[in-house]
Structure of 2-isopropylmalate synthase:
Amino acid sequence: MSNQKIQIFDTTLRDGEQVPGCKLNTKEKVEVAKRLEALGVDVIEAGFPISSPGDFESVAAIASVVRDAVVCGLSRAVEKDIITAAESLQKAVRPRIHTGIGTSESHIRFKLNSTPEKIVERAVSAVALAKRYVEDVEFYAEDAGRTDNEFLAFICEKAVQAGATVLNIPDTTGYCLPEEYGAKIKFLKENVKGVHNVTLSTHCHNDLGMATANSISGVINGATQIECTINGIGERAGNTALEEVVMVLKQHPLLNKTTGVDSRQLNAISKYVSETMRVPVQPNKAIVGANAFAHSSGIHQDGVIKKRETYEIIDPKEVGVDHSSIVLTARSGRAALAYRMKNIGYELTRDELDIVYKSFLDTADAKKEVLDDDLHEIAANRLKVAV
Ligand code: KIV
Ligand code: ZN
């Protein structure tokens, strides 16, 4: 059975850019969009055109350079938003308007001061209006994670009848458990008339650290699009990390899913986005963190030196990292030291290794990490004495 293709919808330039302090100008956004297209994402959410003239200009500029990926603009279920999104997407080869409204009880009552009936009406009008401008209309049910499933299915069905081609089910507050989110997607698959003719999309936030798990659970239960950002950047604790979902699907062949993303570009695009947006990547970040392929404890180093797979489930080259690294610390053993010494030109006998190891531990206790320069110094001082 051939693998089912999961669409990767990147929202680095819209939801991702909502991170405080990481505003990009149009030139920078166009460059990010070009790299996302080269990476192989299916949809680029370029911005929220009504939000500012600058964002409108960026979406329009991206729409005129991106050729293969769908270019999407966000709008609320508000006439002016939708018309502005449509204008900004005029030059797009494959335009999509992403429109929607809050559907949970708290969004309806407190944020929108409305009623479920009126919310359904607004959703339907918004989709129908967007449909007058573009064929591809995505409907989002904001806070779907905390929305009653029956009501969610009802409003989604109405959106499909009004012409929606994609149904986005955001866990806006990052609240759901993976089983719960997966069950929600399954419920929609089974209870929304016409759902088989549209794309069902996940859009998960990471407030409880479960955005990736929830997105994968959604896919296992029938979603065929994942919305995500590079490095998982986004509001509060961020969005689903693109690099994580892509690699989960790649590393688990039993899921029978694939994406169009060239994983070998992940490390480079992660660095580019981090530097351009001035949002550092935490060192232990899965896939793209500085320590994702670094081994520092003696037991692990010994295993990795004997066979990489003992402590690594991904070949670093698969994500664009040249090799795994053996970091020398006071927790490292003789195997790691001998390995590193050999890499920098010292083939040590057992006795020489014993001598060097003692000095190495002294240096390691004094410093956090022992670098190649320290090893050269130890070799110069200690091996000279020993010979
Ligand atoms: O998290 C969310 O609900 C969103 C929507 C606007 C799609 O970002
Ligand atoms: Zn979001």
About this structure: The first helix runs from residue 26 to 39. The domain at 4-277 is CATH 3.20.20.70 (TIM Barrel).
